Every structure is written in structure tokens, then in C-alpha cells.
Amino acid sequence: DGGITQSPKYLFRKEGQNVTLSCEQNLNHDAMYWYRQDPGQGLRLIYYSQIVNDFQKGDIAEGYSVSREKKESFPLTVTSAQKNPTAFYLCASSPQGLRNEQFFGPGTRLTVL
Amino acid sequence: SQQGEEDPQALSIQEGENATMNCSYKTSINNLQWYRQNSGRGLVHLILIRSNEREKHSGRLRVTLDTSKKSSSLLITASRAADTASYFCATDASGSRLTFGEGTQLTVNP
Fold first, then answer.
1. CB of B47 closer than 8 Å to CB of B35
2. Which whole-number Å values give the CA distances from A43 to A90, B78, B89, B110, in the listed order?
3. For a surface tag, which of A55, A107, B84, B89 has the fewest beta carbons within 10 Å of its beta carbon?
4. pLDDT of amino acid A113
5. How far is CA B19 from CA A19, B62, B66, B87, in A?
């Protein structure tokens, strides 16, 4: 099956801890994205990567870090510097080009206790 | 920055009625896309309209784009209870990223 997967579905963490969210795709897409969604709101872009070993900050990158060592994988680390990390996190991928329709994973709901 | 703004924020209709959602944006775009999100799930791409197109259809969906007014509308005809979801517009101004609006929550009552 082709698709994009995120794990875990639910994640709990204590204040002061770093946590890494997984995102994997087997669609052979060049570009990958991380978004944050708060209740009743739209998506805000955290980081994106258009090619392996390269990534750019989005609109709300502070307190987050990413890596893109493989085309298939784009993990997101939520660091202790992120002041309000409780949210729904969505990963997406897209082929390059003018038609950049994005394909989304099922999301990870992070709760800080 | 949130470029897209959807209107209304929430819409409640009966099955069989049509649902219209609007999106306004601020800068020039390459294309505009509409996505659907069921509660607690990822987004699903519905339709893409390029800046040189004015109208596009896909099944029960009709999208219009007015670049002079920087606005788009999504029409869902003959709605069904299964259409209940949040709908988001997203604009591509750079070719490398999308900017999403706040969404319209659609409820279709059986």
C-alpha cells in the first residue's frame, strides 16, 4: 500500500521532555511537511523539506527541530523549548512541481501532562 | 501567516441541500486547493484550481476562482450526512508550500 504513516497516534509527555514524532512515506515524494493544528483552527506550517538533507522553517518553527536524512522519513522533535506543545500534529508529502497536492498522514495527538 | 479566510466558520444544512463555502486570500497565487478533514483525522485533497482557471468540477463538487477579487467558493451539491466534516482552502503562492485557512465546519443533518 502506498501512503504516509505517522506514529504514535497518541503521545503523552511530561513538561521538560523532548519527544520525537515519526513520519514515513512510500509515495516517492520529494517534499514533506509538518503542521500543527489547535482545536477548531487551521493548519500552521512548522517545517518543510523539498529534498533530502535540506529543510526550511515554516511559520512557527521555534521549539521544534527536524531532520531529512532519507527521502522516506521526516521526523519532528518537539523540544522542551516549545512553550505550548499540546496539539494535533500532521505530516504531509507532495511531489514536486506546479501541482503540489499534499497527501496527509493520520496525525499524532500530543498531550503534555 | 494565515492567507486564506473561510466563510462561514460553521454551516448546518439538511441532507439534499447544497452547501457553499467561501475562501478569501491576500496575495497572488499559482493555485488554490480545497481539502476535507473528518474529526481527528488527516486532511484529504478534494480539488485544485489553477490561477488561470475560473471553474472546475469533480463529482458533486464545484469550485470557482475569481483572482480579481482574490476569492474562491466550494459548492457541494445534494449533500449527504457523510459530507459532515471541516473544509479548508489552501493557497500556493510560491510553488513550495501551502497556506491554509481556518476552515468551515459543515454539518449535514439526516
1. no
2. 8, 28, 11, 29
3. B84
4. 87
5. 41, 10, 19, 11
C-alpha A79/C-alpha A20 separation (Å) is 9
At CA B54, angle to CA B70 and CA B85, rounded to 5?
75
Residues of A in contact with B94 (CB under 8 A): none
Over residues B12-29, the pLDDT tens digits come to 999 999 999 999 999 999
- The 10 Å Cβ neighbour count of residue B36 is 20
Position A81 scores a pLDDT of: 87
Quote the cell numbers at residue B12. Answer: 448546518
Enclosing H/E stretch for A77: strand A76-78
Place of cell 513550495: B96
Q: Which residue has the cell 527541530?
A: A65
